[in-house]
Amino acid sequence: MGTSSTIKAIPSLEAPDPSIRTDEQQQQHSNGNDDTSKSQKLPSIDAINDFYHSQAGQDKWIFEKLMLSDLDRYRHHGGFFIEFGARNGVDDSNTYFFEHFLGWKGLLIEANPSELQDIVSTRPDSAIISGAICSSDSVTFLYTGISGLDGDKASYDSERYKEIQHRAKEVQVKCYTLDYLTQYLQLDEVDIMTVDTEGSELSALQTFPFERIQPKLIAVELLVGNAERDEDRNKLESFMKTKGYKVCTYIVHYIMIR
């Protein structure tokens, strides 16, 4: 896993979208973004357990199994993550640890405006996208009122839909493709990409420009327990295999590496 590029907009693309927070807005939340000042502010290794926020220890597994042996490199030379289905940036976050303990930058994507209110303050070194990842202009999104269970209606898990349909509100949400966003932010390298969109994970990944950027690690949440979910897993594994990835473990998310 290597260093990342700086978050900034591409002047040649359309005018900056107001739903995207980039470098200028980040300056309002930070008193210095250079590598030296950031490394000096990083917390002590003794406090590491305070920074793990994943639902089932995904962040801890990734760090301890794949990164701990080269701690200085990952902590002082930067990295970049993408997380879609970011929620409020803290609860069950697979990337909070990498931003706040390792000092990485990132891109967070969340479709629910109420969740986004907290991300602005809790994730100062991340660009923030208010919207969904899909190839159309917009998508019908289900707002369930339950944090972490919002998602694209068309691909929402059928079993889980039975549980939330009585309370779900349908809302049209603006869509972006990962190809567009990575160009917009001038990204040429991604260390970790984590995906949790309640059913639309595969279609979102299909918008990623794997021909230009190959994330070192990808974590994808998929539900298990019935034939429909097994089929979704098989489709995901087949697609990711064509991109050179293999599953190395399952901890709520399928964690895949090249």
Report on the structure:
It is a single chain. The protein is of the alpha/beta class. The protein has one domain (20-29, 56-257): 3-Layer(aba) Sandwich (Rossmann fold). It is built from 10 helices and 12 strands. It has helices spanning 23-26, 35-41, 58-66, 71-76, 96-100, 113-122, 158-164, 178-184, 201-205, 227-242, and strands at residues 20-21, 80-84, 105-110, 126-130, 132-133, 138-143, 151-152, 169-176, 192-195, 217-221, 246-251, 253-257. The strands form 2 sheets. The chain has an 8-stranded mixed beta sheet, sandwiched between helices. The chain has a 4-stranded mixed beta sheet with strand order 5-8-6-7. A hairpin with a 7-residue loop joins strand 6 (138-143) and strand 7. The protein is globular, with a radius of gyration of 17 Å.
Query: What is the first-to-last residue Cα distance?
Result: 11 Å
The total count of helices amounts to 10
Estimate nothing, just give the exact number of structural domains.
1
**Average pLDDT for all residues:** 82
Structural class by sheet pairing and helices: alpha/beta
Largest sheet: 8 strands, mixed
Could you say what the CATH architecture is?
3-Layer(aba) Sandwich
Q: C-alpha Rg, in Å?
A: 17 Å
Fraction in beta strands: 15-25%
What fold name stands as the CATH topology? Rossmann fold
- As a percent range, the share of helical residues equals 25-40%
Beta strands, count = 12
